[in-house]
Amino acid sequence: MAGGITQIGFIGLGRMGWPMAGRLAAAGHAVVAHDVAPDRAADFARVHGGRAAGSAADVAPGSTVVITMLPTSREVAEVVAAMGPGLSPGAVVIEMSSGEPSATRAMAADLAARGVTMVDAPVSGGVARAETGELSIMAGGDAAVLDRVAPVLRSMGSTITRCGDVGAGQAMKALNNLVSAAGFLASVEALLIGSRFGLDPAVMVEVLNASTGMNNSTQKKLRQFVLSRGFDSGFGLDLMVKDLTIALGVGRETATPVPLSAQVRELWAAAATMLGPGQDHTAAARFSEALAAAELTSPLVPRKG
């Protein structure tokens, strides 16, 4: 393998992790996979090849690179502790979860004392781009180490941006989602206003996408997941609230006043409370609809289901 990488451990085969690990296998990397869900790793090995590991500790031996793709930094800390002595000096842990930068920096310092390097490389793009290997990756860490693992990252992403030291990628990911979340709510509210005025929401989306109001939500979410009433983008509402909480934490740590960002986070948290667990993040539009006592639909957009 390029750069002396002979075996890649991959921990976390969720909706994003499975296709990401699949891209590594398709690129010819020897993947040793583990997931907390029973039989998930065995299923992956059956579909994509490689080897299933029964525990996080079983991933470490022989892996020159280990990738973590988990819900929060707490789970990452648990698997890093479990791998413990099994990680050989010179190994690299690529933390690709949307974690807390300060927690990642603490783990990186602990690993460095054992001769293991951690870099962070969270992603943006959703399941669809994970499946095609076209994720946007925000990387943080030592430049020489990022050079070494670049072939691994390129197997999963088409855009790799180096943001700074370890933890910088995760800070950037959280701030990216902050901007995205604010744009989504503003766009939904604009559609609700226009709908009451008599405008067709689908026509509004078309105009926004040809004008200065264009953003990721107008391009890829409103028509596809809100007006269709599908609410099935593949990214959870709870994960969005988590990322917004991380963004505000970075704001506190840097003593940055963020009144608008705080309001955005509170609105998303209120949506999560109202809608309950297991919701797609685009379902937050239903929170805004409830406030307006209106529903966004258009005869120009077929309903899903």
Total beta strand runs: 9
CATH superfamily of the largest domain: NAD(P)-binding Rossmann-like Domain
CATH topology of the largest domain: Rossmann fold
Output the radius of gyration.
Answer: 20 Å
Number of domains: 2
Helix content: 40-55%
Order of strands, main sheet, comes to 3-2-1-4-5-6
CATH classification, class level of the largest domain: Alpha Beta
Major β-sheet annotation: 6 strands, parallel
Distance between the termini: 45 Å
Kindly estimate the percentage of residues that lie in beta strands according to DSSP: 5-15%
Looking at the chains present, what oligomeric state does this protein adopt?
A: single chain
Summarize model confidence as the mean pLDDT.
96
What is the tally of helical segments?
14
**The CATH architecture of the largest domain:** 3-Layer(aba) Sandwich
- The coarse silhouette is globular
Low-confidence segments, ≥5 residues, pLDDT <50?
none
Order of helices and strands: EHEHEHEHEHEEHEHEHHHHHHH
Quickly give the structural class.
alpha/beta
